[in-house]
Amino acid sequence: MSLAMIDTMLARLEALADEKTAGTLQWFFKTGPGQYGEGDRFRGIRVPTLRKLCREFRQAGIGEIVPLLASPWHEDRLLALLLLVDRYNLSDEAGREAIFNTYCSRTDRINNWDLVDLSAPNIVGTHLATRDRSPLYRFAVSESLWERRIAIVSTFHFIRLNQFDDTLAIAERLLADRHDLIHKATGWMLREVGKRDQPALEGFLAAHYPRMPRTMLRYAIERFPENQRQAWLNAMG
Q1: How far is residue 175 from each of residues 10, 114, 168, 200, 235, measured CA to CA in Å?
Q2: What is the pTM of this model?
Q3: pLDDT one-digit tens code per residue, 102-133
Q4: In sequence order, which residues have a C-beta less than 8 Å from that of residue 144 and are 6 or more positions away?
């Protein structure tokens, strides 16, 4: 572990902080009392800037990256995840296994939807594409909102490979989920299935639409022609 590297990354993050942008991001990511991001703190750094930092520090090893996940600052954790994605792509099999295990052991720090969405398909989904996918099914029944989101969003990697079974199976398990962020993520993944195989999506809808939260259905059918969209929405009642 290089403390100099960690200190340099933190100094760069501190220098890029913007108080006005931070206020906007804290509102956008629902950090108020009782909201899903309650208590999260923002420096005010947007994703394109963090991606540039990722390129700047792409030589950082896991020992330099993981401490950022413990940071109270949202952008520090997001930079850590972007670096882990980059490091995963550059690693051998042993390195990839270590990154996957680190990711799954630190899901308490992957605690907002952008952190999940920008990392889960590229680490968890990629890693499990050629391995036992049971970890996703354990996440799907977790008490953690973010682990449940990891479960469904990770399958985006499988969808890109035209493999839909796990997306549909996990979506079925999430039909009764009570959180809007899960309804949106599941509807999004179902929509991605439909973009590649509309009959597969329509088959899922026909079997499950009476139980689907309305937000999930709306996201899933977003690309349907208007008459078809209205037919599904009216069928739900």
Answers
A1: 41, 22, 11, 17, 17
A2: 0.95
A3: 999 999 999 999 999 999 999 999 999 999 99
A4: 107, 108
